[in-house]
Amino acid sequence: MDPKDIVYVNGTFVPRADARVSVEDRGFVFGDGVYEVLRVVNGRLFATRFHNDRLERSLDGVRITLKGGDSPARFVEIGKQLLRENDLTRGEATLYIQVTRGATTRAHQFPPPDIAPTVYISVARFSPYTEFAQTGASAISHPDLRWGRCDLKTLNLLPNVLAAQTAKERGAFEAMLIRDGVVTEGTRTNFFGVVKGSLRTHPRDSHILPGITRLVLRDLARDLSIELDETPISVAEIPKLTELFLTGTTTDVMPVVRLDDKPVGTGKPGELTRRLQRVLAESLASGSD
Fold first, then answer.
1. Strands 241-248 and 190-195, how do they pair?
2. 4 labelled catalytic
3. In 3-state terms, what secondary structure has residue 28?
4. Under 8 Å between Cβ of 212 and 54
5. Residue 1 lies in a domain
6. Shared-domain flag, residues 136 and 267
7. What pLDDT is stored for residue 19 in this prediction?
8. Among residues 80, 153, 168, 196, which one is catalytic?
9. C-alpha 237: how far from chain center
10. C-alpha to C-alpha distance for 128 and 118, rounded to whole angstroms
């Protein structure tokens, strides 16, 4: 283990190998918790305010109350300290924040109010998907079998895991999820497509997680006078896609050039995708937080 592999658990900075969480923790027995992942470029966190707002919304949505002065903003400051202690202030990294309802005797209802949430924060070196960003990736379509509150970033990710594994077994980078005849999102990304020259994506509702890169890209598109139509892409429209790309904290803007073993458009990254790649890269390089 790298001697600088330090994480934060419930108020203490410890080597990752020494970090401990109770087997009674509700995150372990119920998946009763939420999380957030932030991108770090040369020690600077990207879109911090948006991530903090989303973590706050997820906590409120599952009714986890932080204690002892904890807050998303405080977690970010702890993350910055971890970046320094782990020598991750140069190059690319990610910051992971997880909060569960705490550890107590197993029971479905909430624990007593004196049970404090479990807080785990870590950082890690990150390598962008440079090759896929240039050549394009492949994806498969897959039924969206998740619960009804996909807008909350919870630990309940088993449907995502199964869909992602199916994509891997079929040699694809991501699974594009389909619910009620329309594209919702990916297992860990948001999907955008170009249909008859119009940039389309699923609207923000309970069926998708409001991705931070999705939010940033929406604003960047507006600055470039690119109209974004938040109307879902129907299954019938999928063969008509001339461009397809996905977005995410660790995927940036990634072209999808094959879907279900068939080429998308020309089978190469499209002009609009390339343009949005460039403006997002510029935003990341500026270190905007």
1. antiparallel
2. no
3. helix
4. yes
5. no
6. yes
7. 97
8. 153
9. 26
10. 30
Give the pLDDT confidence of 181-232 residue by residue, as tens digits.
Answer: 999 999 999 999 999 999 999 999 999 999 999 999 999 999 999 999 999 9
Check which CATH number belongs to the domain holding 209 and give it. Answer: 3.20.10.10
Residue 213 has what pLDDT?
A: 97
Q: Which of 22, 49, 62, 246 is nearest to 152 (CA)?
A: 62
CA distance 121 to 98: 6
**Cβ atoms of residues 8 and 128 within 8 Å:** no
CATH number of the structural domain spanning residue 118? 3.30.470.10
Question: Is 36 part of any domain?
Answer: yes
R_g of the chain computed on alpha carbons: 20
Question: Which pair of structure tokens corresponds to residue 17?
Answer: 């190998």
The model's pTM is 0.95
Question: 191: part of which helix (H) or strand (E)?
Answer: strand 190-195
d(CA 273, CA 282): 14
* Residues 95 and 215 occupy one common structural domain: no
pLDDT 10s digits, 142-166: 999 999 999 999 999 999 999 999 9
